[in-house]
């Protein structure tokens, strides 16, 4: 009986059928990048807000004040009497009642100068000029509540982590395309609920669920594409990353055109419902069907692939070799039971963690260094395009391992140098920082490909999902590490990033080279990789 790779060569390793499926599934990269980075725009800090004095709303209505009038009566006394207070996180400890004067509401406290009036912390009584522009103004994530914005991104990454375990396992047991479609439906529904969440608690609950399903769409689409093409075409997985980058570049345009966070949330969530149409055009992975002892269904799909590719399968292809490895429910022990599998798994887990922590850290750093957020975010996305092109140029010439190691080391060195460059040479600091972003983007994209190629079919989706769960752990830690360390010294996070990246670059040199090698079908195949 012929092997699956022999049948695939006969049917066409990257013909018209695979190109169509590949292009359709690539769109998932765009919507996943929206979810991945949307907090930068959903959580924009409002420029103009202040703490309202009790009774100010009623007095404002009686006196016919505008918001600007109310702000002046509230903030100006603080600025004149206590220059250290901006009126955002504390207010005068007074109450304006019906006896207050419209012209001078503080006149009744005439025996005290504004500087001598007591101050008190503000609690849930903020006024925003644009109350629905972001989740910060919607749920009062300012002052003592600012940490809750970091929490919302950590919760999303916790959803990614949960999705990697649960939906990665489900995709190996119940099929790639079924889990992909259910995940797309889940992302869309949860995204709508997030947009209309009446409170922050409900917001983070469904943001978490959106992360769970979002990870399901991203991982399964990547595995499907990798499993239906030949070994020489597996770099198409890198091209999927280009669509992720396109999403990063499109997102600031959406945020610029839509003034409210609810509108942005709906715009990035609703497209997921369109992916449900793939039920009629994207088949189940024939490799997966073979591992589940469903050779007839796999052969039927291979005949369909051959037909669309203008090929014809020989009559003796009436049956395909089925993996002799006993199929069982995958577990973490399967990934560490044998020496090479164990080494690969531990190194890949560290690589995922490092790539995600540095990548997300550098993205969020854009929001704290100042400048035009929309333009700088677009440019930071555009920088990632050369990364994919460099990978496509080098990965077939030098293999996977060397570019993987060099990209990590370059990212680490660039982060370290950026830390000590003077602020009065901004072009040089930006150039070196851009080189670091380019390097870690290359590393992040290569780890997807290498991870897929180093696991057997029976464990591939579970293995990729489990290892990439460390990516989500890095995402959970990134906002807290970045903002807490930056509060001590703005460049301190870059020092941590540089150490992590260089160590990762050295470790990946211990992985086997997979250039031009057929995808392993069993654990024994992995152990034979040198």
Automatic annotation (TrEMBL):
Signal peptide from the UniProt entry: none
Record keyword Transport present: yes
Domain of life: Eukaryota
Membrane topology classification: Multi-pass membrane protein
Tagged with keyword Ribosomal protein: no
One example of a Gene Ontology biological process annotation: serotonin transport
Residue span(s) of domain Major facilitator superfamily (MFS) profile: 110-516
Reactions accelerated catalytically: agmatine(out) = agmatine(in); histamine(out) = histamine(in); (R)-salsolinol(in) = (R)-salsolinol(out); tyramine(in) = tyramine(out)
GO MF terms, alphabetically ordered: monoamine transmembrane transporter activity; neurotransmitter transmembrane transporter activity; quaternary ammonium group transmembrane transporter activity
Cellular component, GO, one term: basolateral plasma membrane
Compartments reported by the entry: Apical cell membrane; Basolateral cell membrane; Mitochondrion membrane; Nucleus outer membrane
UniProt entry keywords in alphabetical sequence: Cell membrane, Glycoprotein, Ion transport, Membrane, Mitochondrion, Nucleus, Transmembrane, Transmembrane helix, Transport
Transmembrane segments: 21-42, 154-171, 178-198, 204-225, 237-258, 264-282, 347-368, 374-395, 402-421, 427-450, 462-482, 488-511
A Pfam family assignment: Sugar_tr
PANTHER family xrefs: SOLUTE CARRIER FAMILY 22 MEMBER
Family statement drawn from the similarity comment of this UniProt entry: Belongs to the major facilitator (TC 2.A.1) superfamily. Organic cation transporter (TC 2.A.1.19) family.
Protein name, as recorded: Solute carrier family 22 member 3
Species of provenance: Grus americana
Gene name of this polypeptide: Slc22a3
